[in-house]
């Protein structure tokens, strides 16, 4: 369970990026976070990743108070293993093939070699890329690259998948396929949080939609629609 209690974030120069945010996201939910540029979506993700600290308020994830977690030591990296992250620009290693891009995420957490092989093979099958495991990113379509990034984010079995504009660089058909994959991942038990501007996809998916406007939660509806950015 993710809980934001009266969370505000003011950056050094005085920009109030998040104002008094209250939010609960239950395990297994699929949530879109929408809102125009500058409305606070990235700050929300950064707060959740503990990349930035709230100016006031409290963030709890599975009863863990992020504000009480020591910055030094193992607590933050251990906490972050709960979270898989996917970006608009994929962020794959260009000089590594598909298999290696995914396997590296497992090596980082020091998984045993035989588990790595099993888990990487299994997750590549889930994302529909088992036949391309030897390909390099440059030889994959945008949609395939994003599938690799999703596999990499999932291989360590995070509880929560955060996707920041995952379809921002994709055409409509690849975008829909990535959304279908995220829905499948959600149905397999992972909480999924997707930041997006893609109104068409949001409206088609009929999921919870949280709308940010100037740092405030301006809307939060189940089976919601993309709100006009007025
Ligand atoms: P979004 O992701 O919706 O575009 P952001 O969370 O990036 O919104 O930004 C919210 C507001 O905070 C904007 O006004 C932005 O300029 C400001 N902001 C974001 N990051 C910083 C930062 N590191 N320092 C100062 N202001 C920032
Ligand atoms: P996006 O729109 O994809 O969220 P942005 O262009 O808002 O990306 O932000 C890119 C990076 O710059 C982020 O790390 C954000 O925190 C930082 N940033 C955004 N606005 C400001 C700002 N006004 N001052 C300093 N850093 C900022």
Automatic annotation (TrEMBL):
<dbReference type="GO" id="GO:0005886">
    <property type="term" value="C:plasma membrane"/>
</dbReference>
<dbReference type="GO" id="GO:0016887">
    <property type="term" value="F:ATP hydrolysis activity"/>
</dbReference>
<keyword id="KW-1003">Cell membrane</keyword>
<feature type="domain" description="ABC transporter">
    <location>
        <begin position="2"/>
        <end position="230"/>
    </location>
</feature>
<keyword id="KW-0067">ATP-binding</keyword>
<dbReference type="InterPro" id="IPR015854">
    <property type="entry name" value="ABC_transpr_LolD-like"/>
</dbReference>
<dbReference type="GO" id="GO:0005524">
    <property type="term" value="F:ATP binding"/>
</dbReference>
<keyword id="KW-0472">Membrane</keyword>
<dbReference type="GO" id="GO:0022857">
    <property type="term" value="F:transmembrane transporter activity"/>
</dbReference>
<keyword id="KW-0547">Nucleotide-binding</keyword>
<comment type="similarity">
    <text>Belongs to the ABC transporter superfamily.</text>
</comment>
<dbReference type="GO" id="GO:0051301">
    <property type="term" value="P:cell division"/>
</dbReference>
<dbReference type="InterPro" id="IPR003593">
    <property type="entry name" value="AAA+_ATPase"/>
</dbReference>
<keyword id="KW-0132">Cell division</keyword>
<dbReference type="Pfam" id="PF00005">
    <property type="entry name" value="ABC_tran"/>
</dbReference>
<dbReference type="InterPro" id="IPR027417">
    <property type="entry name" value="P-loop_NTPase"/>
</dbReference>
<keyword id="KW-0131">Cell cycle</keyword>
<comment type="subunit">
    <text>Homodimer. Forms a membrane-associated complex with FtsX.</text>
</comment>
<dbReference type="InterPro" id="IPR003439">
    <property type="entry name" value="ABC_transporter-like_ATP-bd"/>
</dbReference>
<dbReference type="InterPro" id="IPR017871">
    <property type="entry name" value="ABC_transporter-like_CS"/>
</dbReference>
<comment type="function">
    <text>Part of the ABC transporter FtsEX involved in cellular division.</text>
</comment>
<protein>
    <recommendedName>
        <fullName>Cell division ATP-binding protein FtsE</fullName>
    </recommendedName>
</protein>
<dbReference type="InterPro" id="IPR005286">
    <property type="entry name" value="Cell_div_FtsE"/>
</dbReference>
């Amino acid at each position: 369970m993710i809980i934001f209690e009266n969370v505000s974030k003011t950056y050094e120069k005085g920009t109030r990026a998040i104002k008094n945010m209250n939010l609960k996201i239950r395990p297994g939910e699929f949530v879109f976070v929408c809102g125009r540029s500058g409305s606070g979506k990235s700050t929300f993700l950064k707060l959740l990743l503990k990349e930035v600290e709230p100016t006031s308020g409290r963030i709890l994830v599975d009863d863990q108070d992020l504000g009480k977690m020591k910055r030094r030591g193992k607590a933050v990296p251990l906490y972050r293993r709960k979270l898989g992250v996917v970006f608009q620009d994929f962020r794959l290693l260009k000089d590594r093939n598909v298999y290696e891009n995914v396997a590296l995420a497992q090596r980082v957490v020091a998984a045993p070699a035989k588990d790595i092989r099993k888990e990487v093979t299994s997750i590549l099958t889930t994302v529909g890329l088992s036949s391309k495991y030897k390909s390099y990113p440059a030889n994959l379509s945008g949609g395939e690259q994003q599938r690799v990034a999703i596999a990499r984010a999932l291989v360590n079995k995070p509880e929560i998948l955060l996707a920041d504009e995952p379809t921002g660089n994709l055409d409509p058909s690849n975008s829909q396929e990535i959304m279908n994959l995220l829905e499948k991942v959600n149905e397999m038990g992972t909480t999924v949080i997707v930041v997006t501007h893609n109104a068409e996809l949001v409206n088609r998916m009929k999921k919870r939609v949280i709308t940010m406007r100037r740092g405030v939660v301006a809307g939060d509806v189940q089976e919601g629609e993309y709100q006009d950015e007025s």
